[in-house]
Specification:
By secondary structure, the protein is an alpha+beta fold. The protein has 5 domains: about 15-210 and about 580-605, no CATH class; about 240-265 and about 465-580, Immunoglobulin-like; about 280-460, von Willebrand factor, type A domain (Rossmann fold), CATH 3.40.50; about 610-735, no CATH class; about 750-855, no CATH class. The protein contains 20 helices and 35 strands. An 8-stranded mixed β-sheet has the order 5-4-9-2-1-13-16-15. Strands 20, 21, 22, 23, 24, 25 and 26 form a 7-stranded mixed β-sheet that branches. Strand 15 and strand 16 form a beta hairpin. Helix 2 (about 305-320) runs parallel beside helix 7 (about 450-460), helix 7 (about 450-460) packs across helix 19 and helix 13 (about 685-695) runs antiparallel to helix 14 (about 700-715). The protein is globular and about 100 Å long.
Length: about 850
C-alpha cells in the first residue's frame, strides 16, 4: 500500500483491519460501542495508535480488549498512573492498551495498543454515550466522524500536534472497513432516517413504529463522516426516562441511585410584529494591535478595527427598544462602556455610537479570559436572556480555559463568535460557540463582517423560553436532586436535557408512578408540563443516563481553576466512580500473562486517514507557486501534494490549503492561524522570531506567507508571545508596512453607514441636513414635497427606506433589521398615509420601489 502524505515513502502494512459500530439512539441520546480489530502482519511487535474525534458532549465510559483469546477489561485510573502502567507493561513485553483524552482539547482521544506480537490479533471495544442536538428542520443528528479537522497546537504547549504525523491515503483506498448498525427508539414513533451514505432499508421492529433498525450498506469506505438524520414523530413533546442505578454501587452516590433524564425541546415560533424583545446583548470586541491590519491583502481594504466598528454601529442600530446592552473591548487589558448593562434608549444609543466611532486597536495583546470572567460576574437580569457576541482575529494560549469558562455559564446565555481574517483560531471560535449553543462565523478575504453579524443577531432576537423551574410529585421517602446547575433559558432550536438523581427509599408499597412538573415562561405566557415516569426504572449495564449525568457534572467541575482544589478532587472522584474519562483520568488494560522483555523500542504504526486528491492538488499548486525549490528546496510531495493534480492559480482555497499543514495535514481545509501578527509580538522574541521580522521584506503576500511558514517549521516548541502589558506595542519598522509609523488616515464613511448612523433608536430617521446630503437634496426641497398631514420624521423615514431599497439592495442582509424597526414605527405613526408617502418618495428620488416592500 502506498501511503500519500507521509514524510517518508513507507510501504508498511497497516494493522487496523475493520471497525464495527453498534449504536442505540433513544430520543436525544446515542449509546455507541465501537470495535477496532487489529492484525499484525509484520515480523516484529508493533504499537498501533488510533486518533479519533468525539463530540465534546460525548462521555467515554468503558474500554476492553480481546487479545490472543483473552478478554481484558481496562480500568480507569489517574492519567499519570495509567500511562505509567502502560509503559511498564510494554517494557516487560506484555500486551497493553491505553485510552486517553488529549491534554489540550476535550474532543480528541488517542487509543494505543502496545506490543501486538507478529501475526497477533486484537480487538478493542470502546463505549461512549453522547447527547444529540436537533437540526433546524427537527431532525436528530448522529455523526461518526471519519477524520479530524485541522487542529491547533496551542501556543505555549510542548510537543507536536496530535494529527501532524497521521498518514493519508487516496479516497477509496483505506485499508480497513467500517460496519455500522443503529437501533432507534422513540416513545412517539420514528418517521424516517436520511443520510448521505448509502443505507440498508429502514426496518421497524414494533407495530407502533417506536423501534426501528438501520445499517450502512455493505462496502462503505470510511472516507467521510457517517451522518444519520433521524426524524421522530412529535419531536417537540417532552419526555422522561428513569434508569436504575449500578448494581453494587453505594446508595446515595450518583451511580448507585436511579437517574432521571427529562427532555425538553419546545417549539418556539417567530416573534409577532411589534412584540417587545426583552433580552440582554453583550458585544466583546478584539482591540489588540493586530486589528490594525487590513481585512484582506489589498492595501486599500479597510482595517479590521474599522470593519469591527462599522459592525458595532449596525448592531447597535438594529437593537430593539427596551433591551439591555453593553460593549466590551479586550487586548492585554479590557474595558467596557458601562459598569453594567444599560437599557437601550435614544440617549444610551447615541452615547455609545459616539464612543464606538472613537475606538482604536490600542489594547496590546490578546487576552479574552479575564473580560469573559468580568462579563459573567455580572448577574443576569430576570427575564432578559443573555446573548454574547465575540469578535477576534487571533488565538489565545489558553483556549481550553476560555471554552471551559463559556461552558460553565452555558445555561444562562448563548454565544455567537466571529473569526476575523485567516489567522483566527478555529478551535477558539468554534469552541466557545458550541459551548454556549450559538453559532460560529469566519470573515475572510473580502467578506463583510456586517452581513454575518446581522444574520446572527436575527437568530438572537428570536424569543426564548425563560424562568424554567421544576417541581416534583414523588412518593413519600423519595426526593429528587438536580445534577448540575440546570437550565435557565432555552433558545430557539435548542433542546434541554435535565438530569436528576432520585434518592431515598419508597415508603409507599402502592406507588408505581411519579411525576416532574416543568414550568416555564414564553412570550409573557406561563406553561406547565407534567412528565410522568414509571418508578420501575429501566435496568441496563450500559447506564447511558448515569454516564451523561456524570459528564454534565464533570463539565462544571473541570472548569475550576488551579486554586479550586476541592472541585478538582470532586472531578477526579466523579470520573473514577462513573467511568467517564476526564482530563485527569485514562483507561489502561494489561495482559497479565508473562511476556518477553523488549530489546529496543517498539515499531509505531499510525492508522491513516483518507486524503482528498483534489485538495492535495491545491496543496501542490500552493507550494509550486509560493515556494521556490531552487531557493529553499521545498518539496510539495512531502506534505501530501499530488504532482498529477491540476494546478489552479486562481483558486482562493490555495492559501488555505497551505495553511492547513502549519498544524495538521488534514483532508479538511479550514482557515488556520498562520502565525503571530507582527503587531502582537513581544519585543523580547527569540532570534528565530526576530529573524521572521527581518526577512519579511517581500512585497507580495505569497512570499510573506513563505517567510512565516519557514519560521514556524523551524521552531521546536510552540511558545506564547502575546503581550501582557496595558500599553500598545511599539511600531515595528519593516517594509511589510511602510506607513506603520505614520498616522493612519481616517477611513471615509460609506453612504450606507452614514445613513444608518442617522437612524434613531425607535427606528425613525430625522429630517435634517445629514439625510438631505445623502439623498442629494436640500432640506427645503424635501420638506416641500412631503404629503399633507405627515410628520417630518415619518416622511424622512420613508425616504431613507426607499434609498436603501434602490441604492443598497446588495447589502440587504445588513439593513433588514433596521428596516423592520422603521416599518414598525411607520405603521403606528403614518399608517393611513404610508401608500401616499411611498408614491411621493419614488417620484422625488426617481426610484420605483413597490409599496408591497412596506407591507402595504
Amino acid at each position: 500500500m502506498t501511503v500519500c502524505g507521509l514524510v517518508t515513502n513507507s510501504q508498511e502494512p497497516v494493522p487496523l483491519k475493520s471497525i464495527s459500530v453498534d449504536v442505540v439512539v433513544r430520543g436525544f441520546v446515542a449509546d455507541v460501542v465501537s470495535e477496532l480489530r487489529y492484525h499484525n502482519e509484520e515480523k516484529t511487535p508493533v504499537e498501533v495508535v488510533f486518533v479519533f474525534p468525539l463530540d465534546d458532549e460525548a462521555a467515554v465510559y468503558a474500554f476492553e480488549g480481546l487479545i490472543g483469546g483473552t478478554r481484558i477489561e481496562a480500568q480507569i485510573r489517574e492519567k499519570k498512573q495509567a500511562e505509567q502502567e502502560y509503559e511498564d507493561a510494554l517494557t516487560e513485553g506484555r500486551q497493553a492498551f491505553l485510552l486517553e483524552r488529549e491534554a489540550n482539547t476535550s474532543d480528541i482521544f488517542t487509543c494505543s495498543l502496545g506490543n501486538l506480537p507478529p501475526d497477533g490479533e486484537a480487538t478493542l471495544k470502546l463505549s461512549y454515550v453522547q447527547a444529540l442536538a436537533p437540526e433546524p428542520d427537527g431532525a436528530i443528528r448522529f455523526v461518526l466522524p471519519a477524520v479530524l479537522n485541522p487542529r491547533y497546537a496551542p501556543q505555549g504547549s510542548e510537543g507536536e500536534n496530535v494529527t501532524k504525523s497521521i498518514p493519508r491515503v487516496p479516497k477509496g483506498k483505506l485499508p480497513y472497513t467500517l460496519g455500522l448498525s443503529a437501533t432507534l427508539e422513540s416513545p412517539y414513533g420514528i418517521n424516517r432516517v436520511e443520510s448521505k451514505c448509502t443505507l440498508e432499508p429502514l426496518r421497524y421492529r414494533a407495530e407502533d413504529r417506536t423501534i426501528a433498525q438501520v445499517s450502512l450498506a455493505e462496502g462503505h469506505q470510511f472516507d467521510r463522516d457517517v451522518e444519520l438524520l433521524i426524524y421522530y414523530e412529535d419531536i417537540h413533546k417532552p419526555s422522561a426516562l428513569l434508569e436504575a442505578g449500578k448494581p453494587g454501587a453505594a446508595p446515595g452516590s450518583l451511580m448507585g441511585d436511579p437517574a432521571l433524564l427529562l427532555t425538553l425541546y419546545p417549539s418556539v415560533p417567530a416573534p409577532k410584529p411589534g412584540q417587545k424583545v426583552t433580552e440582554e446583548f453583550l458585544f466583546l470586541m478584539d482591540r489588540s494591535g493586530s486589528m490594525r491590519s487590513c481585512t484582506d491583502p489589498n492595501p486599500d481594504s479597510p482595517r479590521r478595527i474599522q470593519s469591527a466598528k462599522e459592525t458595532l454601529i449596525f448592531l447597535l442600530k438594529s437593537l430593539p427598544l427596551g433591551c439591555y446592552f453593553n460593549i466590551y473591548g479586550f487586548g492585554s487589558t479590557h474595558d467596557s462602556f458601562y459598569p453594567q448593562s444599560v437599557e437601550y434608549t435614544q440617549e444610551t444609543m447615541s452615547k455609545s455610537l459616539q464612543r464606538v466611532k472613537e475606538l482604536e486597536a490600542d489594547l496590546g495583546g490578546t487576552e479574552i479570559l479575564q473580560p469573559l470572567k468580568a462579563i459573567y460576574s455580572q448577574p443576569c437580569r430576570e427575564g432578559y436572556p443573555r446573548q454574547l457576541f465575540v469578535f477576534t482575529d487571533g488565538e489565545v494560549c489558553n483556549t481550553d480555559e476560555v471554552i471551559a469558562e463559556v461552558r460553565r455559564h452555558s445555561s444562562s446565555h448563548r454565544c455567537f463568535s466571529f473569526g476575523i481574517g485567516e489567522g483566527a483560531s478555529t478551535a477558539l471560535i468554534k469552541g466557545i460557540a458550541r459551548a454556549a449553543g450559538g453559532s460560529a462565523e469566519f470573515i475572510t478575504g473580502k467578506e463583510r463582517m456586517q452581513a454575518k453579524a446581522l444574520q446572527s443577531l436575527k437568530k438572537a432576537l428570536q424569543p426564548a423560553v425563560t424562568r424554567i423551574s421544576l417541581s416534583w410529585d414523588l412518593p413519600p421517602g423519595l426526593k429528587a436532586e438536580l445534577v448540575g446547575s440546570g437550565p435557565q433559558v432555552i433558545f430557539q432550536g435548542q433542546r434541554c436535557l435535565i438530569y436528576a438523581q432520585i434518592r431515598g427509599q419508597d415508603q409507599s408499597s402502592s406507588s408505581t408512578e411519579a411525576a416532574a412538573v416543568l414550568q416555564y415562561q414564553f412570550q409573557d405566557q406561563t406553561f406547565k408540563e407534567r412528565l410522568t415516569f414509571s418508578l420501575s426504572s429501566q435496568e441496563t449495564d450500559r447506564l447511558p443516563v448515569h454516564r451523561l449525568a456524570a459528564q454534565t457534572l464533570l463539565k462544571e467541575l473541570e472548569g475550576a481553576g488551579e486554586k479550586e482544589k476541592e472541585k478538582q478532587r470532586l472531578a477526579l472522584e466523579t470520573s473514577l466512580s462513573s467511568g467517564v474519562v476526564c482530563s485527569q483520568t485514562a483507561y489502561v488494560g494489561v495482559n497479565k500473562e508473562l511476556g518477553t522483555a523488549l530489546q529496543g523500542p517498539l515499531a509505531r504504526r499510525n492508522i491513516p486517514l483518507a486524503w482528498d486528491r483534489e485538495r492535495a492538488g491545491l496543496l501542490n499548486t500552493f507550494f509550486t507557486s509560493v515556494f521556490s525549490k531552487k531557493e529553499n528546496n521545498a518539496q510539495p510531495e512531502k506534505y501530501g501534494a499530488d504532482d498529477s493534480a491540476d494546478d489552479s492559480d486562481d483558486d482562493p482555497r490555495i492559501i488555505r490549503g497551505g495553511m492547513a499543514l502549519c498544524y495538521a495535514q488534514s483532508a479538511s481545509l479550514r482557515p488556520l492561524n498562520l502565525g503571530l501578527s507582527l503587531s502582537r509580538m513581544n519585543s523580547s522574541s527569540p532570534p528565530s522570531m526576530q529573524h521572521s521580522i527581518n526577512i519579511a521584506k517581500y512585497s507580495d503576500q505569497a512570499n510573506v506567507l513563505k517567510a512565516k511558514l519557514c519560521n514556524r517549521a523551524a521552531r521546536k516548541k510552540k511558545m506564547c508571545y502575546f503581550l501582557r502589558q496595558s500599553s500598545p506595542p511599539p511600531p515595528i519598522q519593516n517594509s511589510l508596512s511602510a506607513k506603520s509609523s505614520e498616522p493612519t488616515p481616517k477611513e471615509k464613511e460609506s453612504p450606507l453607514l452614514s445613513l444608518v448612523s442617522l437612524q434613531n433608536a425607535n427606528g425613525s430617521w430625522p429630517l435634517d441636513s445629514g439625510l438631505a446630503e445623502i439623498l442629494g437634496l436640500s432640506e427645503a426641497e424635501i420638506s416641500s414635497k412631503s404629503p399633507a398631514q405627515v410628520t417630518p420624521d415619518a416622511w424622512a423615514t420613508v425616504l431613507a427606506l426607499l434609498w436603501l431599497h434602490s441604492r443598497a439592495t446588495g447589502q440587504r442582509d445588513e439593513w433588514e433589521l433596521l428596516e423592520t424597526k422603521a416599518l414598525s414605527w411607520l405603521l403606528v405613526t403614518a399608517g393611513p398615509q404610508l401608500a401616499e408617502c411611498v408614491k411621493a418618495g419614488n417620484e422625488m428620488l426617481g426610484s420605483s420601489v413597490s409599496p408591497e416592500a412596506f407591507g402595504i
